[in-house]
Amino acid sequence: MTTFACRRCAGALTGYIAAFMLLTTPATSAIAEDWRGFRGPAGDGVAVEKSAPLKWSAEDNIVWKAKL
């Protein structure tokens, strides 16, 4: 009788874990869509913006600075 109860608990636990994984996986995928990743969204190093700056200097095209 004890073996049946343990198997039943293990089956329920497996079901809960599977349900948790199925419910949380889409949420993490939606969050990951906002992350651009290494070298841009496609990973090819190409900017998707049409007005991306082509040249930088100490004063031109700088959005913010941090002292190192």
Instruction: Please count the beta strands (DSSP E, at least 2 residues each).
Output: 0
Assembly of the depicted chains: single chain
> Describe the biggest sheet?
none
**Mind telling me the C-alpha Rg?**
25 Å
- Specify the overall morphology: elongated
Order of secondary-structure elements = H
Uncertain stretches of 5 or more adjacent residues: none
Helix content: 40-55%
Distance between the termini: 68 Å
Quickly give the structural class: mainly alpha
Number of helices: 1
Strand content bin: under 5%
Mean of all residue-level pLDDT scores = 75
Structure description:
The structure is a single chain. This protein is mainly α. The protein has a domain at 1-27. The protein has 1 helix and no strands. The model has no long low-confidence stretch (mean pLDDT 75).
Question: What layout of secondary structure does this protein have?
Answer:
Layout: H1 2-32
Question: What can be said about this structure in brief?
Answer:
The chain is mainly alpha-helical.
